[in-house]
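Notes from the 1:1 (GR / supervisor)

We went over the backlog. Supervisor wanted to see one worked example end to end before approving the batch request, so GR pasted a single chain during the call. The sequence is below; no edits were made to it. Supervisor asked that the structure be written out right there so they could see what the output format looks like.
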Amino acid sequence: MNLHHLLPHQLKQAITDGWPLLVPSGCIEYHGPHMALGNDTILADELCQRAAQRVNAIIAPPFWYGPTGYAVTGPEQGTVDVSTERFGRHVKDVLASFWDIGFRWIIVCQHHQGLDGPEALAIRQAGAEVAFERSLAERGRAWWGQAPLPPEDNVFERIQVWPSVLPEVAAQGVVMGDHAGYYETALLMAVHPELVDMTRLGMDAPWYTNASNSKARQATREAGERMWQAMTDAWVEKLAVLTRPRRPTPSQVTVTGLF
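Structure output shown during the call:
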């Protein structure tokens, strides 16, 4: 279910039932002559949509305009770049609102530049700041130092950033962010074939579309669908584990009457 399509009572029920909020993130960036500029965001959103078809989850509108650093091209090829600092401030405001709405889990899906790029780092910092600032406001100073947190109190995990390709899928050979190469081309072909025009991929195509380990010309819809299946399976499994009710571990159980 999409957040912007919900009626108020539906949102309230989702919060009560502990449904996670999935937030796609990406950018507008040149992806060779054969692919749509919004590829990274489109892929992140598609993964969230697919996961939400199999687990109870709400999908937020994406963070579309992430920083690109003009690493691939400048604006003459359609790439949009923004200040990482200002992007982070905007993201922080949005994540804080999601927190205040009451979402117990807020998971940002990151495809563009992976988890170590400026966009993901800005989101991770924003999420950490929201968690600490909201906890201070809600619980007062020294809130964590006063007593151990109960297992169900997920304050430090409430906002997370996950890669579109989780480690177990990467171990199967799926590469995240080969930038307009075999993997991204196949993924986009599988879900939006109208956004890929292989006839534009001439012999003078950018080097990254024909890198030795990722040749875009070899991409197929069938290969892309296999990747989507593996990526979605991994996300669904991780979401199921994350949202499963937690029980105290033996070390968290207070034992009385021994002495």
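Supervisor's comment: The domain at 3-167+229-245 is CATH 3.40.50.10310 (Rossmann fold).
Batch request approved.
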